Amino acid sequence: MKEKLTVIKVGGKIVEESETLNQLLTDFSTIPGYKLLVHGGGRSATKIAAQLGIESRMVNGRRITDLETLKVVTMVYGGLVNKNIVAGLQAKGVNAIGLTGADMDVIRSEKRPVKEVDYGYVGDVKVVNASVLANLIRQGIVPVMAPLTHDGAGSMLNTNADTIAGETAKALAEEFDVTLVYCFEKKGVLRDENDDDSVIPVITPELFEQYVSEGIIQGGMIPKLENSFSAVEAGVSQVVITQASAIHRQEGTVIRKK
Ligand SMILES: Nc1ncnc2c1ncn2[C@@H]1O[C@H](COP(=O)(O)OP(=O)(O)O)[C@@H](O)[C@H]1O
Ligand SMILES: CC(=O)N[C@@H](CCC(=O)OP(=O)(O)O)C(=O)O
């Protein structure tokens, strides 16, 4: 029997507000057993870029990352957001280590090829170094991963945090019984975005296609669900999309292969 590991991904709206972040870190600190945290921070990057006079552009939930934007996201995700979370967890007795994909060569990626859209310095994940992460985890260290990867040739690349969480969960599923929880500000995937009580309890790829065509699922929810299906297909035991305050209950929306 494999040991259990919980991978939690927390997004931009939660990490940008100190109160919601602090609550999330408190809840995270009480999850029993092995765990790993992946954070986003897209909203913080957009705000700081604007303060620097840099405009942000998103296509299909991904940021167009030119060289100036790459500098901003490296500072914001790898510095400000990551270190605030690590310090917050240390204050709660969790021995966290902050990592980008370049640290210990944890995640290598490849610059996304230019097709209809040129995303710039955005990386598609090639290899997650599961054994490095597993060794840290088994030593009782909690990895806190920023949405940054590297190309192995000296360049950092910006990678969607939902993808980091999905790919990391998949790689670690060889060694652990992995539960992946995407948490954000809503109660789950909603039938009506303005009605918090319209949680869709279970989503399959077939239902996903239908909801996208009906416009019920859009924007940042699309990469979250695509990564969720990829994770359950690749042996992650359980994938849930839920509210940050409900990470223990894991009610929300459950992702099924079919
Ligand atoms: N059906 C849906 N149910 C819930 N949220 C949805 C839905 N469709 C689109 N969304 C949007 O997806 C967003 C979550 O994606 P994203 O902003 O990338 O999250 P985060 O960065 O917090 O992980 C929600 O804030 C919401 O606006
Ligand atoms: C390539 C790409 O889109 N990267 C994302 C990484 C941050 C992220 O995913 O943050 P959230 O989870 O808060 O949305 C971005 O720069 O917005």
TrEMBL record:
EC number: 2.7.2.8
Site (Transition state stabilizer): K9, K224
Catalytic activity field: N-acetyl-L-glutamate + ATP = N-acetyl-L-glutamyl 5-phosphate + ADP
Aspartate/glutamate/uridylate kinase domain residues: 4-242
InterPro entries the UniProt entry points to: AceGlu_kinase-like_sf (IPR036393), AcgluKinase_fam (IPR004662), ArgB (IPR037528), Asp/Glu/Uridylate_kinase (IPR001048)
Domain of life: Bacteria
Subcellular location as annotated: Cytoplasm
Keyword tags: Amino-acid biosynthesis, Arginine biosynthesis, ATP-binding, Cytoplasm, Kinase, Nucleotide-binding, Transferase
Stored Pfam families: AA_kinase
GO molecular function term, any single one: acetylglutamate kinase activity
Functional pathway: Amino-acid biosynthesis; L-arginine biosynthesis; N(2)-acetyl-L-ornithine from L-glutamate: step 2/4
Binding site for substrate: G41, G42, R63, N158
CDD domains recorded: AAK_NAGK-like
Family: Belongs to the acetylglutamate kinase family. ArgB subfamily.
Record function comment: Catalyzes the ATP-dependent phosphorylation of N-acetyl-L-glutamate.
Protein name stated in the entry: Acetylglutamate kinase
Source organism of the structure: Phocaeicola acetigenes
Gene that encodes the chain: argB
